[in-house]
Design goal:
Distance between the termini: 31 Å
CATH topology of one domain: 2,3-Dihydroxybiphenyl 1,2-Dioxygenase, domain 1
Strand order of the largest sheet: 1-4-3-2
Shape: globular
CATH class of one domain: Alpha Beta
Number of helices: 3
Radius of gyration: 20 Å
Structural class: alpha/beta
Number of strands: 8
Largest sheet: 4 strands, mixed
Length: 192
């Protein structure tokens, strides 16, 4: 099996118009799909040819309090930030200037060794990062474990260890593989 990227990240907003203005108009991500019915919207923006970010709009959703990217927290917690790759180093400066010109907070360009990044927040308080891969350093090709006290599982190396999970002994037969209609199928397949 080979993954093709992040099909989509699903976030939430209480104001789809502000969200569209930020993601489509400021960041330049195309709005490629919109599903909806009363009290519900689900819109998709194109990050790259294989990756999307989507937003549910639900009544009563409010922006979250901004938390510094990577700052440790305690207690129940789910998500720190999402980073979007950019093709050229210059793209970081273009994004930084665009976000500053919009009157929004954006960090300086930060050198993390293998990537350079800028950090910001969307109108929903979602912490976002934009990262450029430093030329000549590719942790995907040559993984690096610089943690002096790595997690036990990390010490087993970068490659998947499927033996830690039970093997599939009863795969779903081809004749039982049914796909059920969900939100949006009526738009593309006429199914409800």
């Amino acid at each position: 099996m080979k993954y093709t990227g992040v099909n989509h990240l699903a976030m939430a907003t209480g104001d789809m118009d502000k969200t569209i203005r930020f993601w489509r108009d400021l960041l330049g991500m195309r709005l490629v799909a919109g599903l909806g019915r009363p009290g519900y919207r689900h819109y998709f923006f194109e990050i790259s040819p294989t990756d999307l970010i989507a937003f549910f709009e639900w009544p009563g959703v409010q922006p979250v309090e901004e938390k510094a990217h990577g700052r440790p927290v305690s207690g129940p917690f789910l998500f720190d930030h999402v980073s979007f790759g950019v093709e050229k180093r210059e793209d970081l400066w273009i994004l930084k200037d665009k976000i500053e010109a919009a009157g929004l907070w954006v960090s300086d360009v930060i050198d993390h060794g293998f990537i350079h990044s800028v950090y910001a927040f969307d109108p929903n308080g979602i912490p976002i990062e934009f990262s450029w891969n430093v030329e000549g350093i590719d942790v995907r090709r040559t993984p690096v474990m610089a943690d002096p006290s790595p997690a036990a599982a990390a010490q087993e190396g970068p490659d998947p260890k499927p033996e830690h999970w039970p093997a599939v002994t009863d795969p779903t037969p081809e004749e039982e593989r049914e796909v059920y209609p969900g939100a949006g199928s009526e738009l593309f397949h006429g199914k409800k």
